[in-house]
Amino acid sequence: MKIGLLGCGTVGSGVKEIIDTMNSEIIISKILVKDEKDIIEPRMTTDINEILNDDIDLIVECIGGIDIPLNFIKKALTSKKHVVTSNKKVMATHYKELIELAKNNNVSLTFEASVGGGIPWMENIRHIKRVDSISAFDGIFNGTTNYILYNMMQKGIEFNYALKEAQALGYAESDPTDDIDGHDVKYKCCLSGNAIWNTDFNLNDIIFFGIRNISKKDIEYAKNKKYNIKLIGQGQRWGSKANLYVIPTFLKNYENIANVPHNLNCVRLKSEFLGESSYIGQGAGKFATAHAVVQDIVSIYENRNLSFPISEKIEIVNEVSSNFYIRSKNLNEFNHIIEEKIDDETIITKYIRLKDIKDFIDKDTFIAEFRLYLQE
Ligand code: HSE
pTM of this prediction? Predict the structure, then answer.
């Protein structure tokens, strides 16, 4: 099987290294690079048409971004080439269009590496769905923010310092906004929900908050009360309705998920017969992510049916109620819902609907949800 690899950065070069050492019938025959100066071997080209017009069976897209990869993926599918991508942004924003294009051209489009990095998340979703119905998922879907929160908790350091460390280690996206403001987890939740419930959720209906405004003070408060704070993405479905949201969460420090260290991801499913199952592993990084890409390639080579159909219409209603921790310079909007005042700028709310306060959370406010156990 002949592979055309688009992009030879962190993930792409990992894919190349793994496949080149595999000694199988799967071979990389062409590699798209950005500039002439990046060409360091005969398989490399800067001309996408050289790859799309070739008798290649499968395109691996590891470019990142939206517009350019979208165009390439569409052209590849229309040319009846299978596509494997690690790009959550393009998949989450154009899910229906791409899934249908693959179906109409009778080829596979897979995206295992785009959620949970090296963790076989999509594979386990497929596996469990064969005999069971999944009612909920949740987890730590972003390695950068887990690294930041873990280090703030362990070393008592400030957010900016921990972010710099995460960037230096190569965990963060090129623009860390996607990591720290929750966009990255939003894309991953959308793709997880789509795959689990055979639907195409509207990305814009997902409520999301990040950890940009967290401070040492919040971490110290959590520690004193025997909580850890994690950025949690989650979804619950009942009938034709669902919750899908991303929010920093106070978790009791004896819970397993509260203790997932460093940059690891931990993702969980709840299904009727199996109950709860959890998957922990490297959610980012060159070889872990490349491993997931190559697993998809091997599955396509084995002719497996890897498709996630779109057959259900499910509306995101986000009927979520809880007590929320809010730190803001302007607490006026929250006066009527205070359960406990911690200091002049920090409160814990009464048990209220997230929907009723979400529009008052401005760009400088830190909000977190209290959960005794997830998925209750
Ligand atoms: N920046 C992402 C993370 C990479 O930190 O999890 C993997 O999607």
Answer: 0.97
